[in-house]
Amino acid sequence: MLRRIWSVIRKEILHILRDRRTLFVMILLPVAQLLVFGYAVETEVRHLPTLVVDHDRSQASWQFLEKLFNTTYFDFCGYASSQGEMVAAIDGGRARVGIVIPARFAADLDRRAAQVLVVIDGSDPGVARSALTAATTTSQEFAIELLTERVSRRGATMQTPVDLRTRVLYNPNLRSLDFMLPGIVGLIMQLQTLLLTAFSVVRERERGTIEQLLVTPIRPWELLLGKITPYIVFGLLNTAMVLVIGCFWFGVPFKGSLFLFFWLSLLFLFSSLGLGLAISTVAANQQQAQQLAALITLPSLLLSGYIFPRESMPPLIRDVGALIPLTYFLQIIRGIILKGVGLAYLWQHAVPLAIFSVSVFALSVVSFGRRLE
Questions:
Q1: Rounded distance, CA 75 to CA 95, Å?
Q2: Residue 118 backbone dihedrals phi, psi, to 5 degrees
Q3: Strands 48-54 and 74-79
Q4: Is 18 helix (H, G, I), strand (E, B) or coil?
Q5: Which CATH number covers residue 57?
Q6: Which pLDDT tens digit goes with each residue over 20-38?
Q7: Residue 150: how many CA atoms within 13 Å on its side-chain side?
Q8: What's this model's pTM, rounded to 2 decimal places?
């Protein structure tokens, strides 16, 4: 039995090594995807081109603008003579934010609340949300500094009613990459193993070589085990490579157990391999396999919590997301990498993943074996 399985494994490894396209997909594509995602995925938007209409041109107005620009959320790109010119620049895409300071801004600071108009391009809600939060926070800080200065001039002290102190666990710098990179690792693992497994089996059917293999003494389950074993090994190697790049190149800290990480990653790989085998039982050719893989990948991307928090989803959508193995693996991988927690905290995600992985893999193997026979 072991000789028969090893013969299939050896055949698959030789095919991978001789097929440059498959080798490229297995080795270079995960690294390229990680680099692209690592540099491109940034949920916190900074350096927004900002146009200024300053009718006051006073020291106070410049202090206010300087405080805004020092946040790095806004980049000064010039002055406009009127609000209409500023809006036209936003319409044309030359600016994303416009700031209008009225003529009596400095004078109003001493008597009442001085008004400042901030016009934001809302065509991209993420950009608009970041700009709005930064402008509001900066304005409040500027107002508090003015009040503190006035009170100190009178020889008194000002104490706020609430002394709020915050502490952010696991990601104190709030780097979005620290949150996104574990998800990227899981997504690359699923996409690669799912596609390569489906393509490998469908390719054999297209060429008619499966029938040739079945006339040999090898059993269907031995054939499938031999075909997927190289992809398990390559999947784990790619996971290690992507993890090393993420930790040492992008500086994402790894706080948990490496041993636990790879064991649970192996469990997740079985779910992806099972989905790949399921695709291979339905797809007649590689093009259909690619389309079906995209059908699985899109819900995994949107409903697993990789991009959008599952807490904000409607209950029905959350239930659909609970049928996706990446949903559980994201909680596992983020718990290990960012929080450094162990199985005592992760079992509630590991158990559903194990049930799903074993079930879908077993059903796919049985279904494919019946089709071959």
A1: 10
A2: -115, 115
A3: parallel
A4: helix
A5: 3.40.1710.10
A6: 776 676 677 777 777 777 7
A7: 9
A8: 0.76
